[in-house]
Amino acid sequence: MSIAPVTDLRDARDVRDARAASNADRLPVDLIEDLPNAVAEDGAARRGLGDPFDRVQSSLQAWLRTWQPQRLPAFTPVRDVAPAGDRGTSGLKSSSSAPDGAVRVTASLYDPPTRGEGPLNWSRNWASVAVLPPARESGRLFYRFRVSSRLVLDGQADLSLVSTSVNFGVVADVAKASPFDAPGFRTPILRPLVGVACRADQDASASQVFEGSIAVRQGESPAMAFVVGTEVLFENGWVRVHEGSSTWIGPAEPGATGTVEFRYAPTALLRVLGHLE
Q1: Which residues is 80 bridged to in the sheet?
Q2: In the chain, what is the straight-line distance between the N-terminal and C-terminal CA atoms, in Å?
Q3: Contacts of 152 (CB under 8 A, 6+ apart)
Q4: Can you give the pTM of this predicted structure?
Q5: Assign residue 37 a region: left if phi > 0, alpha if psi is -120 to 50, beta otherwise?
Q6: Residue 146 Cα distances to 206, 211, 260, angstroms
C-alpha cells in the first residue's frame, strides 16, 4: 500500500478550488435582482433589496396600515333595574337606538327629604352583537375600537353619582360559542366615567381605545358582543341627566361612530412577524 505524496494532495486541492471557481462563474447571478450593495452599469449604487423584497415589504406595510370596518347593529335594551313603585317608570330613559354605536340617556329624578329610606338606584344596559366575515386562512384576528362617554348633568342632592360602563366579549366562531359567554365578559373592560356628581352645569367626558386579538381557524366567523351600561345613585334631592349624555363605540382613529376595526393575520405572516421581532 502506497501513500500519495503531499504534493499530490496539494495538487488535488488546487484542482478542486479551480473547479469551484469555474462553477461559481456559471451561477445564475443574473436572476438575483438588486443584490445589496450592488452597482449599476452607470456606476451608481443600487438602492433597496430588490423588487421581490420590496413587494414583500410593501405588502407588510399595507397590512399594518389597513383596518377593515365592521358596523355594529343598533343597541337594544337588555336590563333595567329601578326602585319599586312609580319612581322606576319615570327614571332613567333612552331614546330610540340607531346603528351608530351610541346609547343616549336622559333622566329627571326626585327624592323628597322626608322619604328617609336610603339611596335610590337606577341601572340600565343595552347590547349589540357583530358577526365578522369568515377567516380565509388560519391565523389571528386583530381588533380595535374606541369607547367614549359624555354626561351632561344638573342637580342638588345629598348624594348624586352617575357612572357608565362597557362590557365586551369576543369568540373565534359564533357557530360554536356566544360572545356573551366569553371569559371575563361579566367584568367591564372599561368604566369611562365613574361617580360623576350631579352639580350645576356639570359636563364630563372620557374616551379610551381598546385593542386585542384572538386565534382563529380557516372558515370560522368571529363574533363580538358589547354591553353599554349607565347607573344613577342619589338620595335626598333632585338630579337631571340632560340630552347629550351618551356612551358610544367607534373606530380607534377619529371618524364616524358605530364601527369597530379588524384585520386577519394568516399564520405565515405571524411567523414572519415573530421572526422579525
Answers
A1: 124
A2: 59
A3: 202, 203, 241, 242, 243, 244, 245
A4: 0.74
A5: left
A6: 10, 9, 8
**What are 113's strand-pairing partners?**
none
Rounded-to-integer distance, Cα 157 and Cα 200, Å? 11
Give the three cell numbers for residue 49.
433589496
Using CA atoms, how far residue 4 sits from 11, 17, 129, in Å, is 11, 19, 83
- Distance, in Å, from the CA atom of 72 to the CA atom of 146, rounded to the nearest integer, reads 13
Looking at per-residue pLDDT, the higher value among 46 and 103 belongs to 103
Residues 6 or more apart whose Cβ sits within 8 Å of residue 181: 169, 171
One-letter amino acid of 140: R
pLDDT tens figures, 193-245: 999 999 888 999 999 999 999 999 999 999 999 999 999 999 999 999 999 99
In 3D, which of 269, 262, 273 has the Cα closest to residue 210? 262
β-bridge mates for residue 190, sequence order:
166
Identify whether the C-beta of residue 264 lies closer than 8 Å to the C-beta of residue 138: no
